Amino acid sequence: MAHVTTWQADRIYVRYSGYSSDREVAAAVREFQADERYDTVRHIIHDFTDCLGLVFSEDLVLELAATDAAAALSKPPHTVAVVTTRSDVLRMTEAYLSSGLIPRSKLTIFPDLGAALAFAEK
After folding, report:
1. Domain count, the chain
2. Secondary structure of the chain in HEC code, one letter for each residue
3. Which end of the chain is more exposed for a tag (fewer CB within 10 A), N or C?
4. CA angle 93, 37, 90 (to 5 degrees)
5. Domain holding 87: CATH number?
6. Which residue, 116, 121, 118, is CA-closest to 45?
7. 74 pLDDT exceeds 90?
8. Per-residue confidence at 105, pLDDT binned at 50, 70, 90?
């Protein structure tokens, strides 16, 4: 599994490919949260279109939600788009939202990248 992170003005785009895990997602998030450009980000897109499978544990996903919530306190609000039609990615996303630490209005799931990009352009 690999991820590639691309910075685009006020947007972060992370593309996952192959088999993935919650650890891969957490690694990508740690990388961009540690970058000083994170403070100006308005949109984050996690694109799982090329993901072949995903495993996760609810404990690590809850830890990720807590870390995200804390990091978001130090910057202007941003939105998160998850691009997927995979049931495993949808289950991980639901576990993340179930933590109650991230507002549901902040994260939107899209079936394709075009829809996520259009949302981020608004």
Report:
1. 1
2. CEEEEEEECCEEEEEEEEEEEHHHHHHHHHHHHCCHHHHHCCEEEEEEEEEEEEECCHHHHHHHHHHHHHHHCCCCCCEEEEECCCHHHHHHHHHHHHCCCCCHHHEEEECCHHHHHHHHHC
3. C
4. 10
5. 3.30.750.24
6. 116
7. no
8. confident
Domain that holds residue 24: 2-121
Token digits for 113?
A: 């990248």
Report pTM: 0.94
Q: Answer whether 72's CB lies under 8 Å from 78's CB.
A: yes
* Residues 35-65: tens digit of each pLDDT: 999 999 999 999 999 999 999 999 999 999 9
Determine the pLDDT at residue 1: 59
> Rounded to the nearest 5°, which phi and psi values hold at 85?
-125, 5
Average pLDDT of the chain, as a whole number? 94
